[in-house]
Amino acid sequence: MKMLTKFESKSSRAKGVAFHATRPWLLVSLHSSTIQLWDYRMGTLIDRFEDHEGPVRSVAFHPSQPIFASGGDDYTIKVWSLQTRKCMFTLSGHLDYVRTVFFHHELPWIISASDDQTIRIWNWQNRQEIACLTGHNHYVMCAQFHPSDDLIVSASLDQTVRVWDISGLRKKHSAPTSSARSFEDQLARQNAQQQDIFGNTDAIVKYVLEGHDRGVNWATFHPKLPLIVSGGDDRLIKLWRMSETKAWEVDTCRGHTNNVPCVLFHPTQDLIISVGEDKTIRTWDLNKRTPVKQFKRDNDRFWLTTAHPSMNLFASCHDSGVMVFKLDRERPAHAVSQNKMFFINGEKQVQYYDYDKASTSLPMLTLKKIGKSWSSIRTLSYNPAERSILVTMGEADASTYALILLPKDVTGAIEPTDVRQGEGNSATFIARNRFVAFTKSTQTLDVKDLTNNTTKSIKLDGVKDIVSAGPGTILLLKATSVVHYDVQQRKELAEILANNVKYVTWSNDGNYVALLSKHTITIASKSLELISSMHETIRVKSAAWDDTGVLLYSTLNHIKYTLLNGDNGIIKTLENTLYITRVQGKQVFCLNRAGNVENLTIDPTEYRFKKALVNKNFSEVLRIIKNSNLVGQSIIAYLEKKGYPEIALQFVQDPETRFELAIECGNLDVALAEAKTLNSKSSWEKLAKEALVQGNYATVELGLQRLKQFEKLSFLYLATGESAKLAKMEAIAEHLGDYSSLVQNTFYRNSVEKRVQVLMASGLHPLAYATAKANGLDELVEQIVEQTGIDEASIVLPELGAPITLPESRGVVGNWPLRESSLSFFEQALLGQVEDLNLNETEVETRQITNDFESEAIFDDEDLAGEDAWDLGDEDLDIEVEEEVVVEESLSAAAELNLWLRNSHSAAGHVAAGSFETAAQLLNRQVGVVNFEPLRKRFLEVYQANKLYVPGTPGLPSSQVFIRADFTETENKNVHPYIPGYENVEARLHEGFKQFRSNKLEEAIAIFRDIIYTITVSAVPSTEEEDKCKEILTVCREYILGLSIELARRALDPADIKRNLELAAYFTKAQLQPAHRVNALQVAMTQAFKNKNFASASYFAGEFLKVVSTGPRAEQAQKIKTKADQSPYDALDIEFNPFAEFEICPATFTPIFKDAPFVSEALTGAKYQPSEKGKIDFITGITAIGASASGLRVIA
Amino acid sequence: MDPFSDSGELYAIRQQFFAGQYSAVAELSLDEFSEPYYAAAKQYITRSQIALGDFKTALATLQTEDDLTSETLSAYIQYLQGNTAGGAKLEQLIAAHQDTEIVQIIGAIYLVKANADVDGAITLLSTSTESPSMESILLLLQLRILNHQLPLAAKELQQIKKLAQDSIIIQLAEALVNLSLGGEAELQQAYYFFEEISSQWLSFSNLLSLLAVNLQMNRLPESEETIKQLQLLLDTVEGAPRADFIANQITYALLTEAEDARVEELRAELALVDPQHPYLVDYAAKNLLFDDIVAKYEQAQV
């Protein structure tokens, strides 16, 4: 057992402490009269409460309401609000120090114990004292409610512990007060209610427990069992048991060397925890009453301890503050190996979890008897080669390891049979047949073999812990660094500085390692070069890498992620701490503290998005933008920070943000749209400014118009040469009476007359005269002279030159882009402008394929039915024909090949075994293959695909090894060779369809033939696959047939219209997928229509419309049909009746009507005219038409 | 103390030699070894040099002394260089010293190499009057596999496993036998062995064996990864069994349904590297066999 301190406060003497039920809060009452509220997780002081006078001995949180109570030496109980952080009211009544206060778990009651020798119960809702329990004849040190029953237990310096029954009190306060009670009720009350000697029925003493020789300081109930534990100044802890009628002392725990002020039961385990003025915290085995462990402080006497209501946390107050601690780590020991995780559950049993099946195994072993009791298992290392585990347990000097063989079959928690133990703080496997055990105190690393013998001993220095790091090596965790150490060569391979690393996680590809310490995560490469390091305020608990190299980690209350560059974020908030063991796509597999596997589904979009962005994988970024609704300020801020405002733009709806982002990335269109929405001065200003920079004058104009900045506008018009608009500006200025602007405009426009008029109007006669004169406007000059009445001769002007002609504008200048405003990749993509964007294509493609597949299924079903009927026509063939093939075992061949040959029923197996002769024989008999040449490639492929060469000692030839269909097979008689091809047949089929769609008919035929060859020489495990093979053969047959007809048609002499029409019509008879048959129908329809065979054309158009009902092609068909129906007769009589049942002979391309004679081909089931018997099959090119055959067998 | 144990002086050199790290062994200096282990170390070093084709250095090292080991190895080098006297000398040594480990080993290799006399080699290795050395057993088991006597090999392996389970030589022998035997447990063992050894004592040949196991266990992504590693290693390693690698790549290409062109390319490459490789011999034989079949059924049809 280990005590792990989680929090410590420094203060004066602490007397009382309480945990909040849900928040990480801790109330501490001090001897100095202050009450502190701490966040023990963050380690911060949240608030202080100072209303009491003198020491506060006790505090208690209400289990659900936001209030707490305190009791102190000022004889009062105060109830405080956590919301206002103020004292709500004070309960007065006690006549001496209040020792303890507690809330009732459901009733609005507070119980208090006092040195005035009484216990009082208060109703905190109406703030009344509702009971005063007298009986103790000394200070009452402690009084508590029972967690579920109507009982109280109290401890007093009168050396007794008393149990009180308060059911009367409950009845009194919950029964209806005024209504008349029924007779039975009264009777029951009379009988049930005992009275104490004072006639008091509220609370009566049920038991008085005597046994302590000095005052008793504390007594408390067990949460579930009828037990009481008490501690006293006689330094003893006593355990009491009670029944309905009596209570008695069970046992005493001796050990404390001074007063025991407080003792309690562990909430979930069979432990007693006590604190003493002897400066120790001690734990005791509840069942054996023996000491388990003690923890000592140097200077501080302990006063009180309390347990968290739901978590494995305890708090103890002492002379200089409080400490929060837990007993034992709660991290379940576990190890991941391939697709399994081995772990120790809450019952100290070994289990494994299968990630692929998402299921937990039964317990395999119980380790209860391994190691000392109360020593938990800290680490687990798994050896897949030997199926054994290595566990370490215990702490410090008492730490041991055990090497345990797992049972072969999982049957339940059995005792391990093969256990080898030794001493060491950590132990881990480093090889199939080696493990290392490290002893911290002596700094020795022992390399051991599986019999637990030391083969080598190495001295290390300053190492705190070791963890495995791939075969033959370990990581040495030191105080300030981590060292990668080669155990065999005793060599330090690499070192990285990192403080107090506790846990290590390697990425799936082994290229990265995450080093976890309490508050830091360091990511390094496999050669321990620092990649990034980050600080985490909440304790880091665990981490695992996902498949793409993102590290997911858990803290006390979150699951978070970090990219290699240190960018991180929160994925999920946790109610309870979890330990991540593996990440697979959206699945996070965790272990909880109870040792159960929890499988969380997360949304990895955010980190995938960021990762794609960081890696500049823009098509992925785009995919994510399109396919997920990624929103939130954090993403936008992230994008802006990373310099991708144009991407951020895609996520934002808010006009303000959109506008800002648009300006930032120079997207004027969006900015303009948003500016219109916002219509604020600042936005127009920003827009105009940005537009000016970009040379987008139209937008600048709009912005300036909105802003009514006429001078700027005028200047813009001047610059762009829009004189008409300048004239307007002049008029506006005049209208507004803005003379200075008007004059400015006249300058821009060079309208001298206007200017003179303005100058005149504003009384600037000399200027007006000078202007007019200088420009040679004699008429105006005269007018001015006239108006002013000045003698013109008296005006002296400098010598004037010729009137200046101002340059004329050379016409209107449009927008003049100054900045390369090419759209970013994203904008283009989002506008759908990127034609060759792979992403879209593949999407379309996959959709196409799925469509194909669906329609194919329907189509295949129909066809199968047809084939069944067909086979019956055949004469019964000797099915046992295979038996005749004599399998000779060749002594010179490898045993494996002999096995294959012996076990194979398919030709493929014989091919793989190298027995081409028997394989050929089989194929000849099964399906009548006579032309083997096309199968050469497939034969050799099948033969080679399962053979490998392994080099041996140099000088010797390499030996051949073999690939089996199922490498887990152990029975010799079931051993089959691995035959490639079948897995890929469907994909090949789609390849063929693709060629078909792109009108490459020869290529398509070649592919379909190739598929036929592949299937002919294949081996599959069951009839299901065999049926599938046969379906595919039929599909291939129909396509080859159809395409051959079409090819023949195309090769025709154009003059042979009749044959052309026939072949076009026959093409439509091939059983193609509807989407493909459309092509045939279209050909037939257009050909028929062109050649005035309107009846046929109408028929084909009708068929066409059944499949395609909308779109331009359908419209065309509709037109043809309408037109053809106007004169529904055929100009040319062809051998095609759409309503008769017939098939097409693949050799002659002539119809074989339903009851006409035919011969068939065995591999694909094609039907031929009887005349074709004995020829090579046209479809496959390998079989003989009409050959006797037993049918293809492809089951291995 | 056993010089071959984990902490022994010869531990690393033996590990490296049997892991196929010949370059690393060849570079070791004999001065590093103390007197009692000098001879053994020298044998490993010269044999590594031979494996790398560095006959000159090997001969120079061997000529300094005049013992049976040097004699045998010198004769073997002579034979490898095409000098018939070497072969004659070896035959002579085999006749005279068939109980000596080095003669057994080199002799057996010689017999197989020169005369394809696997049976003779097996006899040489198994008729020793003294208890056979571990390397002789390793060799013997390989020959059994080549001779299609797999059950016998498996049986012999079980016997010697009891003697020295921990030795790399026995583990290597076990892994090789298991590769040929197949089956889940066997392949797992071989996989763990080769995986561990390639991460500790990486060499082309053990990585190539790892590739074989991966393919046998149908682990294609891992196989691809291994092929990449091998490709990287190819240029840095001398005397690598490159032909086997190419042959296995053909198989990989077929399993992954690669383009026909890729397979052809590999086949051409193999013909260039080692026209006598069993793969090509087998391929040609099967092609001929197929010709016969084509002809036979054509005839039947006519």
From TrEMBL, chain A:
Q: Does the keyword Hydrolase apply?
A: no
InterPro entries, sorted: Beta-prop_COPA/B_2nd, Coatomer_alpha_WD-assoc_reg, Coatomer_asu, Coatomer_asu_C, Coatomer_complex_subunit, TPR_COPA_B, WD40/YVTN_repeat-like_dom_sf, WD40_PAC1
Q: How does it sit in the membrane?
A: Peripheral membrane protein
Keyword Protein biosynthesis belongs to the record: no
Question: What GO terms fall under cellular component here?
Answer: COPI vesicle coat; Golgi membrane
Q: What is its main location?
A: cytoplasm
Gene Ontology MF term list: structural molecule activity; ubiquitin binding
* Gene Ontology biological process terms, A to Z: endoplasmic reticulum to Golgi vesicle-mediated transport; intra-Golgi vesicle-mediated transport; intracellular mRNA localization; intracellular protein transport; retrograde vesicle-mediated transport, Golgi to endoplasmic reticulum
Ranges for domain Coatomer alpha subunit C-terminal: 832-1195
Where does it localize?
Answer: Cytoplasm; Golgi apparatus membrane
Q: Name one Pfam family in it.
A: B-prop_COPA_B_2nd
Q: Which residues form the COPA/B TPR domain?
A: 621-786
COPA/B second beta-propeller domain sequence ranges? 347-592
- By its UniProt entry, which SMART domains does this protein fall under? WD40
Q: Which UniProt keywords apply?
A: Cytoplasm, ER-Golgi transport, Golgi apparatus, Membrane, Protein transport, Repeat, Transport, WD repeat
WD repeat feature ranges: 49-90, 91-132, 133-174, 209-250, 253-294
User: What's the subunit arrangement here?
Assistant: Oligomeric complex that consists of at least the alpha, beta, beta', gamma, delta, epsilon and zeta subunits.
Task: State the PANTHER family in the record.
Answer: COATOMER, COATOMER SUBUNIT ALPHA
Q: What does this protein do?
A: The coatomer is a cytosolic protein complex that binds to dilysine motifs and reversibly associates with Golgi non-clathrin-coated vesicles, which further mediate biosynthetic protein transport from the ER, via the Golgi up to the trans Golgi network.
| Listed name of the protein | Coatomer subunit alpha
Q: Which organism is it from?
A: Babjeviella inositovora NRRL Y-12698
UniProtKB/TrEMBL annotation, chain B:
Subcellular locations according to the entry: Cytoplasmic vesicle, COPI-coated vesicle membrane; Golgi apparatus membrane
**GO CC aspect terms:** COPI vesicle coat; Golgi membrane
Source organism superkingdom: Eukaryota
Q: Name one GO biological process term.
A: retrograde vesicle-mediated transport, Golgi to endoplasmic reticulum
Among its keywords, does the record have Cytoplasm? yes
**GO MF terms held by the record:** structural molecule activity
- One Pfam family per UniProt: Coatomer_E
Task: Specify the protein's topology with respect to the membrane.
Answer: Peripheral membrane protein
What family does this chain come from, according to its entry? Belongs to the COPE family.
Question: What is the annotated role of this protein in its UniProt record?
Answer: The coatomer is a cytosolic protein complex that binds to dilysine motifs and reversibly associates with Golgi non-clathrin-coated vesicles, which further mediate biosynthetic protein transport from the ER, via the Golgi up to the trans Golgi network. The coatomer complex is required for budding from Golgi membranes, and is essential for the retrograde Golgi-to-ER transport of dilysine-tagged proteins.
Q: What is this protein called?
A: Coatomer subunit epsilon
Native species: Babjeviella inositovora NRRL Y-12698
Per the UniProt record, the lineage of the source organism begins with: Eukaryota, Fungi, Dikarya, Ascomycota, Saccharomycotina
